[in-house]
Amino acid sequence: PSRYFFCTTDLGCAMLLKAVLLFGAVGTSALASFAVAPRHHLRVAPQRAAVALPTAARLAPRAPAIFMADAAEAKESDGVFETLKTASFFALWYLFNIGYNIYNKKALNALPIPWTMALLQLFVGIPYCLFLWTTGLRKAPKLSADNVKTLIPVSLGHLGTHIGAVISLGAGAVSFTHIIKASEPVVSAALSFAILGAVSSWQTYLTLLPIVGGVALASLKELSFTWVGFIAAMVSNLSSAMRGILAKKTMGGGVGENMSEANLYGVLTILATIALFPVALAIEPPAAIRAAWTAATGAGMTAGYLAKMSLLSGAFYYLYNEVAFLALGRVNPVTHAVGNTIKRVVIIVASVIAFKTPISTLGVIGSSIAIAGTLLYSLAKNKFG
After folding, report:
1. Nearest residue to 327 via CA among 90, 74, 49
2. d(CA 98, CA 306)
3. What is the pTM of this model?
């Protein structure tokens, strides 16, 4: 029907997917062009006592101009390199995120065991972290018992964010999950007020209206709407907001040694994996996993395909999160907000193309309003508080 938007042929899907990736690349280049500040600094040797020689006197007026020209050239070259580096991080962030959402959905379609899949995706990143730490490629974090206790509540928020999203993605369309996830600022604002007593400006609160209205509008006629998907996505939003609040309350002065953003994410992943293991085992015991695997192979899927989809979803999950830390750590809050908005648009469009998901006209309008509202919220929060 003409009121739905989806590709009808493999060739059309491929062309549209290329267009989405091109859009993401152009967006990241634009973001990086104004987001990066050069980090290279010229080191000048200490000046020695001047000797009054005629030649030196004649050359002296030209020296500052020469040094300034060299400095400007070096600064421009370094700025271009940093811009390209940041653009590469953003492009990889989008690419890995698209890969995760596609492989995760394919894995869940074949094996409807979201708790086990979430556990596997968390676990896949642990060997990667341990390899970097044991080889010295990255400084290993140093944490005391008290540091670990401080991080446990934050890791539970991280776990809730992940498991809620995985359950939602398994229960409905990828595009629908990300439309609901766009309402996270509403949950964050409410919890910040209730727990921290933080009050934002009226301009910031005003931007929550298009988010709520857009999500409601998109959900009203959403063809892939399920209550399980909706509730799980909202649980993910709630957990994400709690993770941010707990981190602000307990980690204001930092925690441990060598706790870079990437290491912090690695530690949270390990703690979340430990917490999820007994829960996943209780909800989806080996018998349930074996039954799902047997049903999938009985439907014509090979063991290699099932293993490939599951492992790739875990690899892309960890990589996109780590690259996101690297990318967002190099830009200012405004660029962060714009980058997140472009990311959500790219994922929604890419998932619609990849899975040929029908979206109603009302759904397109609603999701556009909600995503625009999310951008406005971030910009207002940065400017007005």
Report:
1. 90
2. 19
3. 0.76
Contacts of 67 by beta carbon, 8 Å cutoff, 6+ apart: 44
Nearest residue to 340 via CA among 381, 311, 309: 381
Are 107 and 313 in contact by the 8 Å Cβ rule? The answer is: yes
Contact, 118 vs 163, CB < 8 A?
A: yes
Amino acid at 173: A
d(CA 215, CA 370): 6
- In angstroms, the Cα distances linking 21 to 5, 114, 317, 353 are 18, 28, 18, 12
CB 185 within 8 Å of CB 374: yes
Instruction: Supply 224's token pair.
Output: 């892939």
Which residues touch 380 (CB under 8 Å, ≥6 apart)? Answer: 201, 203, 204, 206, 207
- Cβ count near 157 (within 10 Å): 21
Q: Can you give the pLDDT of all 385 residues of the chain as single tens digits?
A: 433 444 444 444 444 444 444 444 444 444 444 444 444 333 333 443 444 444 444 444 555 555 455 555 656 667 788 888 888 888 898 899 999 999 999 999 999 999 999 999 999 999 999 999 999 999 999 999 999 999 999 999 999 999 999 999 999 888 888 888 888 888 888 888 888 888 889 999 999 999 999 888 888 777 678 899 999 999 999 998 898 888 877 766 678 898 888 888 899 999 999 999 999 999 999 999 999 999 999 999 999 999 999 999 999 999 988 888 777 777 766 676 677 778 888 888 888 888 888 878 888 888 889 889 888 988 888 888 8
**HSE-CB for 62 with a 13 A CA cutoff:** 5
